[in-house]
From TrEMBL:
Signal peptide coordinates: none
Function: Catalyzes the ATP-dependent transfer of a sulfur to tRNA to produce 4-thiouridine in position 8 of tRNAs, which functions as a near-UV photosensor. Also catalyzes the transfer of sulfur to the sulfur carrier protein ThiS, forming ThiS-thiocarboxylate. This is a step in the synthesis of thiazole, in the thiamine biosynthesis pathway. The sulfur is donated as persulfide by IscS.
Recorded name of the encoding gene: thiI
Protein name in UniProt: Probable tRNA sulfurtransferase
Protein location: Cytoplasm
Protein source organism: Candidatus Avoscillospira avistercoris
Binding positions (ATP): L184, L185, H209, F210, R266, G288, Q297
UniProt-listed GO biological process terms: thiamine biosynthetic process; thiamine diphosphate biosynthetic process; thiazole biosynthetic process; tRNA 4-thiouridine biosynthesis
CDD domains the record matches: PPase_ThiI, THUMP_ThiI
Catalysed conversion reaction: [ThiI sulfur-carrier protein]-S-sulfanyl-L-cysteine + a uridine in tRNA + 2 reduced [2Fe-2S]-[ferredoxin] + ATP + H(+) = [ThiI sulfur-carrier protein]-L-cysteine + a 4-thiouridine in tRNA + 2 oxidized [2Fe-2S]-[ferredoxin] + AMP + diphosphate; [ThiS sulfur-carrier protein]-C-terminal Gly-Gly-AMP + S-sulfanyl-L-cysteinyl-[cysteine desulfurase] + AH2 = [ThiS sulfur-carrier protein]-C-terminal-Gly-aminoethanethioate + L-cysteinyl-[cysteine desulfurase] + A + AMP + 2 H(+)
């Protein structure tokens, strides 16, 4: 084929941690993510993954887009493979990068010689190819310090490769290296971003959504499933647990003082989420909470909410500014869906004056009069598991 992708590994290399299994995991993640786009050969050598389309039916642009969303990759480039001799390398530069080069003001060549049998040093190779480019593109100046465009030549084991500047990869660690987490997913802006952030650390995720039909509509549920589907572009296939939460909310409304509605509701969410998480082998819960955003997101309220669970609770957005959260939502493609109007179960029976500094003792005293276990069990029984994927197939 006349074009392939080179994917450079990220932190995997730096850490030296069990590198072999990291690399293999990454390789199989990429192979799986390429599948919807046709037949690709994926192999790894010298901390670089080679993704080669096998025939003309491959959707190379679709595959290239997908490469941007695979965690564990620092940088990616599309390149032209060629024979390992000067004429072939220069020919590849001219054919493959000629358009970019002719639009640049200045250029330099940077070479890497991974195949030490190649008879020139990388400096000699850069000089030779640079000289030929200068001749062929006389209007483009050579500038080795601050070039407008850089031509890269890599001489590797099987072939030489030429490419322009690399693009940033998705970063993070390969999915599947860091255990499994359950993300509490609402229809808002924050929780999909929180899920993305935790997934980026190599963690497999599933989602839990609390759904209070008919107080929240079928469209609100569809919206959350769509958000989950968008997240799978990064996380891979995902299970969404849609928890029937109506009864819990009605009982809270009927039996608790109004200013405690929100905090007690959130404690029920945590109890139910922990139960589902344990059943599914998740080792932590993740929320989109952000300190100080709303009444339930004070330190005091979060302490009372967190006191009810016995597994790590992660809040990846806790210290971020809203505009930075929004920028990530935009980048990962969830923002547009998040800002569609919707009702969340949090907005059902919202107290006029929620307690911003609830005391654990008071909350526990109120809950002591409720059938907590019965309500949790009822919600678990009324949970529907939905699988979402980015592509209809095995995305
Ligand atoms: P988001 O933008 O994620 O909705 P938020 O700023 O609206 O967050 P809250 O409504 O207080 O904040 O919710 C805080 C967190 O609680 C959410 O980020 C989410 O993790 C979880 N959460 C809230 N409502 C639900 C729900 N209906 N189902 C599942 N999790 C929820
Ligand atoms: Mg919300």
């Amino acid at each position: 084929m006349n074009e392939i992708f080179l994917l450079k590994l990220g932190e995997v290399v730096l850490k030296g941690l069990n590198r072999f299994s990291f690399e293999n995991k990454l390789k199989s993640n990429i192979a799986r993510r390429m599948r919807p786009y046709g037949s690709f050969n994926v192999h790894i050598a010298q901390s670089t993954i080679y993704v080669e389309p096998q025939n003309d039916d491959c959707d190379v642009d679709g595959a290239w887009d997908a490469c941007h969303t695979v965690f564990g990759i620092a940088a990616i480039c599309r390149c032209r493979p060629c024979e390992k001799n000067l004429d072939a390398i220069f020919q590849a530069v001219e054919d493959y990068l000629g358009d970019d080069l002719s639009m640049a003001k200045s250029f330099k060549v940077e070479s890497k010689r991974a195949d030490k049998r190649f008879p020139m040093t990388s400096i000699q190779l850069s000089q030779e190819i640079g000289g030929r480019i200068a001749e062929a593109f006389p209007q483009v100046a050579v500038d080795v310090h601050n070039p407008d465009y850089t031509v890269y030549v890599e001489v590797r084991e099987q072939a030489a490769y030429v490419h322009g500047p690399a693009e940033p990869g998705a970063g993070g660690l390969p999915t599947g290296m860091g255990g499994r987490a359950a993300v509490l997913l609402s229809g808002g802006i924050d929780s999909p971003v929180a899920g993305y952030m935790i997934a980026k650390r190599g963690v497999e995720i599933e989602s839990i959504h609390f759904f209070s039909y008919p107080y929240t509509s079928e469209q609100a549920k569809e919206k959350v499933l769509e958000l989950a589907r968008l997240m799978t572009r990064y996380s891979g296939r995902m299970t969404v647990n849609v928890v029937g939460f109506t009864k819990v909310q009605e009982v809270i409304r009927d039996q608790c003082p109004e200013e405690y509605f929100t905090i007690i509701m959130r404690r029920f969410m945590m109890r139910i989420a922990e139960r589902i998480a344990r059943q599914d082998g998740c080792k932590c819960l993740v929320t989109g909470e952000n300190l100080g955003q709303v009444a339930s997101q004070t330190m005091e309220a979060m302490a009372v909410t967190g006191a009810v669970v016995d597994m790590p609770l992660f809040h990846p957005l806790i210290g971020m500014d809203k505009k930075d959260i929004i920028a990530i939502a935009q980048k990962i493609g969830t923002l547009e869906t998040s800002i569609l109007p919707y009702e969340d179960c949090c907005t059902v029976f919202t107290p006029r004056h929620p307690k911003t500094k609830p005391s654990l003792r008071e909350v526990e005293a109120i809950e002591a009069k409720m059938d907590v276990e019965g309500l949790v069990a009822h919600a678990i029984e009324n949970t529907e598991k939905v699988t979402v994927r980015y592509h209809g197939g095995n995305g």
